From TrEMBL, chain A:
The chain crosses the membrane at residues 6-24, 31-52, 58-81, 93-112, 132-156, 177-206, 212-231, 236-253, 259-276. The keyword Endoplasmic reticulum does not apply. Its main location: membrane. One of its GO terms (biological process) is amino acid transport. It comes from Phytoactinopolyspora halophila. Keywords: Amino-acid transport, Cell membrane, Membrane, Transmembrane, Transmembrane helix, Transport. It holds the Pfam family BPD_transp_2. It is a multi-pass membrane protein. This is Branched-chain amino acid ABC transporter permease. It is found in: Cell membrane. GO terms for molecular function: transmembrane transporter activity.
Automatic annotation (TrEMBL), chain B:
Residues 1-22 form the signal peptide. CDD domains: PBP1_ABC_ligand_binding-like (cd06341). SUPFAM superfamilies: Periplasmic binding protein-like I. It holds the Pfam family Peripla_BP_6. Keywords: Signal. Belongs to the leucine-binding protein family. InterPro entries: Leu-bd (IPR028081), Peripla_BP_I (IPR028082). This is ABC transporter substrate-binding protein. Residues 34-378 form the Leucine-binding protein domain.
C-alpha cells in the first residue's frame, strides 16, 4: 500500500506542475487551458524527432522542445488576446479544446501513430525509503512542482511585474487604462506556462507510455488538481496533484478498488464540485 | 477512451443484428471475368493497420499479372473502418452488398469482426482476415483469420515462460477493451490445465493508454512476480517496461504477445529486465535470411510494403485464398467460394506452425503455434528464442 502510494508520486508531481500552470492561466489570463499538456506533448515530439532523425544531442533537443512548447502556447495566447480579449472564460477556454484536438491530429500526421523512441534525460531509481524505490523522475517532478508554485507565488506577491499581472487579472480594464500592456503580459503568461509544461512532459515522457493521446490527456488529472485550489490557490494545486497521484498509486494495489482506479480524477472533480457547493441554497446555486 | 470504443462497438454490433434483417442477401461475383474481393481495415485514426491489406493486394496483383485465377481477374477492394463501429458496419455493406464481393480477405481491424460477424452470417459470405484481434474473429462461423490471435498467443506466451524458461511466479496484467476478458481468462485457464500451474495473481483492470504504470509495476514486484504477462498495445508496453526500469527492477521477465513484435518497439525500448519474450504468430520476420519468409519478403520488398507481422498475415490470407480459388471448378461466385473454403484441405506454409483450414466449424480458432522471439536489454533487436514452433497441445484445444 505504502509502496503503491509512493510509486504514485512521479505521476502526482506531473499533475501538480500542470495543475499549477492551469491555476496560473486561470488566474492571470482567464482561461482553462485544455491544450496545456498537448503543447508539451507536441514540443516533446519535436525533440524526439530532432534526436532520432537529425542526431541533435538530447539536452539541446529538450531546450528546443521547451522553446517550441512556449511558442505554441504563446501563439494560442496571441489569438485569444487579439480576438477574444473581451470574451468570457468559457469562450476563451473553448478555443483551447480546438487546439488540443488540432495538436493531437497534427502529431499523428507529422510523427505517425507509432510510439516514439524516447531516450531519457533522467532515469532509474534515486534513493530508497524503507525498501520503496523513489525514482529520479519522481524527485524531479515533485521538486519542480513545489519550485514553480513557490516562485509564482513570490513573483505575484513580491515584484512589480507580479502586481501588474494581478491588476490585469482582477481589474483588466482599469489596468489597461493606467498603461499596463495587457496583451504582452497575457502572451508572456501563456509562453511561460507553455515552457514549464513542456519541460516537465519532456522529462517524464521517456519514463512513461508516451503516445500523443496519453500525454495530452494528462490535462484531466491536472485539472482535478487545480480544482482543489479552485483554480486560485497554487499551494492547493500542488497538494491536489500529489494527493491524486498517491491515491491512484494506492488504488492500483488493491483488487477491490480496481473499478474506481480509472475514474479517480473524475471522482475527485465531482467530489470537489459537490463540496464547493455544499453551502449553496438550491435556487441560489443555479 | 479506448475501452469506450469497445463498448460502443458492442452496442453497434447489437444494433446490427436488427438492421441486418432488412438487407437482401444477393450473391455476387458474376461480372464477367472479374471477381470482387473485399477487405475492411483500420486505415485512419489513432491506431492503424494498413500493411495486411497492402500485402494481400500485392499477392492479388501478382496473380492478376499472370492471368488471374481460372480466367478470373481479382478486383481487390480495400475499405477503411476508421476504428469506428458505424464506419465498420457501412464499410462491410459497401463491399458485400454494393460491390458484391465473393469473400473478404486480408482484413485487419480492431473492431471489424465484432461489428460485422452477424452481417457476414446473414449475407452468407466468408472472411479470412489477415489479422484477427477481437474474440468474434475466432468464435463465429463465417470468419477464420490467418493468424493465431491474442488469446492462443497468451497461452503460448505463458507456456514458454513456465515450461521453457522455467519461471514460477507469473502475474498477469490485462488491459481489457470491450468483451475480451472471458477470452483472456479462458486462455490463462488453458495454460493452467496444461501445466497444472496457477498465476500468482491477475489484475483485470489495468487501464489502456495510461500515462504512468509505476504503481502496477510496484504491486507486481511487491507480490513477488518473477515474470509478467500482458496483452499490451505498443505504447502501453513501453510505458510498463520504462516504469520497471525507473524502479530499478532489472530481473523481471516479460511474457508478451505479437502485438509488440515490431522493429519500432525494439527501437523504443532499451531496458527489458531479463528479456521480453513473444511467441510470434508467424515465422519471425526479423530473422532476415530465413528461407521460411523468403517468398513473402521478396514480394513485400518489391512492392515497398513494411515488413511486419501484419503484412505476413495479409500475405498468408491472400495466398490461402488464391490456392482455394484455384481448386474451384466452374464459376467463381460467393457460393462456390463458400463451398470451397468449407470443404478445403489444410494448406501448409513455412511461415506458420499450423496448416490453415477454414472448414465447416462454427468457430475458427485453429492456428495454435507461435515461434518464440526475444528482445534483450540494450540490443534494440529481436532475436530468435528457439529453433522450433511452440504448440498448444491438441488435447487442450476447444472442441477436442
Amino acid at each position: 500500500m505504502l509502496q503503491g502510494a509512493l510509486a504514485g508520486l512521479a505521476a502526482g508531481g506531473v499533475y501538480a506542475v500542470l495543475g499549477v500552470c492551469l491555476t496560473l492561466m486561470s488566474r492571470l489570463v482567464r482561461v482553462v487551458n485544455f491544450a496545456q499538456a498537448a503543447a508539451g506533448m507536441f514540443g516533446t515530439y519535436i525533440a524526439v524527432w530532432l534526436v532520432s532523425n537529425q542526431g541533435v544531442p538530447i539536452w539541446l533537443a529538450t531546450v528546443v522542445a521547451v522553446g517550441c512548447g512556449a511558442a505554441i502556447s504563446a501563439a494560442i495566447g496571441w489569438v485569444v488576446s487579439t480576438w477574444l480579449s473581451e470574451a468570457d472564460t468559457s469562450a476563451r477556454s473553448a478555443v483551447t479544446v480546438a487546439v488540443l484536438l488540432l495538436l493531437i491530429s497534427l502529431s499523428f500526421i507529422l510523427f505517425g501513430n507509432k510510439p516514439q523512441p524516447f531516450r531519457p534525460i533522467l532515469g532509474g531509481p534515486a534513493f530508497q525509503v524503507s525498501g520503496v524505490v523513489i525514482s529520479q523522475v519522481a524527485v524531479f517532478t515533485v521538486t519542480i512542482a513545489a519550485v514553480v508554485a513557490a516562485a509564482s507565488h513570490a513573483l505575484l506577491t513580491r515584484t512589480a511585474v507580479g502586481i501588474k499581472l494581478r491588476a490585469l487579472s482582477e481589474r483588466p480594464t482599469t489596468a489597461e487604462l493606467i498603461g499596463i500592456p495587457a496583451k504582452l503580459f497575457g502572451i508572456a503568461v501563456w509562453a511561460a506556462t507553455g515552457a514549464v509544461g513542456t519541460l516537465v512532459i519532456a522529462i517524464v515522457a521517456p519514463s512513461q507510455s508516451n503516445d500523443a493521446i496519453a500525454l495530452s490527456m494528462l490535462v484531466v488529472p491536472a485539472a482535478a488538481a487545480a480544482l482543489l485550489g479552485a483554480f486560485r490557490r497554487l499551494d492547493l494545486a500542488v497538494v491536489g496533484g500529489l494527493a491524486l497521484g498517491v491515491l491512484q498509486g494506492a488504488a492500483a494495489q488493491m483488487t477491490e478498488l480496481s473499478v474506481a482506479r480509472h475514474f479517480l480524477p473524475f471522482l475527485f472533480i465531482v467530489g470537489l464540485l459537490v463540496w464547493f457547493q455544499r453551502k449553496e441554497v438550491w435556487d441560489a446555486a443555479r | 477512451m479506448r475501452s469506450l470504443l469497445g463498448f460502443t462497438a458492442l452496442t453497434a454490433a447489437g444494433a446490427l443484428v436488427l438492421s441486418a434483417c432488412s438487407e437482401d442477401g444477393t450473391a455476387g461475383g458474376e461480372s464477367g471475368g472479374t471477381i470482387v474481393v473485399g477487405s475492411v481495415n483500420t486505415l485512419s485514426g489513432s491506431a492503424t493497420f494498413p500493411e495486411a491489406s497492402e500485402a494481400a493486394a500485392a499477392v492479388f496483383d501478382a496473380v492478376n499479372a499472370e492471368g488471374g485465377v481460372n480466367g478470373y481477374t481479382i478486383d481487390y477492394t480495400i475499405v477503411d473502418d476508421k476504428g469506428d463501429p458505424a464506419a465498420a458496419a457501412s464499410a462491410a455493406r459497401e463491399v458485400v452488398a454494393q460491390d458484391e464481393a465473393v469473400a473478404l480477405v486480408g482484413s485487419a481491424s480492431l473492431i471489424e469482426c465484432q461489428v460485422n460477424a452477424d452481417y457476414y452470417v446473414q449475407e452468407d459470405i466468408l472472411s479470412i482476415p489477415g489479422i484477427g484481434v477481437d474474440p468474434d474473429c475466432f468464435t463465429t462461423p463465417n470468419i477464420a483469420p490467418a493468424n493465431v490471435g491474442p488469446f492462443h498467443d497468451m497461452t503460448l506466451s505463458l507456456l514458454y515462460g513456465s515450461e521453457e524458461l522455467g519461471l514460477d511466479n507469473i502475474c498477469a496484467l490485462l488491459e481489457i477493451a470491450g468483451n475480451t476478458l472471458p477470452a483472456y481468462k479462458e486462455a490463462i485457464q488453458r495454460w493452467s490445465d496444461i501445466t497444472g500451474k496457477e498465476l500468482l495473481y491477475i489484475d483485470e483492470e489495468v487501464p489502456y493508454g495510461a500515462s504512468d504504470y509505476t504503481s502496477y509495476i510496484v504491486r507486481a514486484r511487491e507480490a513477488g512476480c518473477e515474470a509478467i504477462t500482458v496483452n499490451p498495445v505498443e505504447p502501453d508496453s513501453i510505458g510498463q517496461l520504462k516504469a520497471a526500469e525507473q524502479q530499478g527492477w532489472d530481473d523481471v521477465t516479460w511474457l508478451l504477445l505479437t502485438s509488440v513484435y515490431s522493429e519500432n518497439y525494439a527501437e523504443a525500448v532499451s531496458e527489458t529486465g531479463n528479456g521480453v519474450y513473444v511467441p510470434a504468430e508467424f515465422y519471425p520476420f526479423t530473422d532476415s535470411d530465413s528461407p521460411e519468409t523468403e517468398e513473402w519478403r521478396d514480394l513485400m520488398v518489391e512492392n515497398d510494403i513494411d515488413l511486419t507481422s501484419f503484412s505476413q498475415g495479409g500475405f498468408l490470407a491472400a495466398t490461402y485464398f488464391v490456392e482455394v480459388l484455384e481448386g474451384i471448378e466452374g464459376d467463381i461466385t460467393r457460393e462456390s467460394v463458400r463451398e470451397a473454403l468449407r470443404s478445403m484441405e489444410p494448406i501448409e506454409n513455412p511461415m506458420v506452425g499450423t496448416p490453415y483450414v477454414f472448414g465447416p466449424g462454427d468457430t475458427h480458432h485453429d492456428n495454435t503455434a507461435g515461434f518464440p522471439v526475444q528482445l534483450q536489454s540494450g540490443t534494440n533487436e529481436w532475436e530468435l528464442a528457439g529453433d522450433e514452433w511452440l504448440h498448444i497441445p491438441e488435447e487442450h484445444l476447444p472442441g477436442e
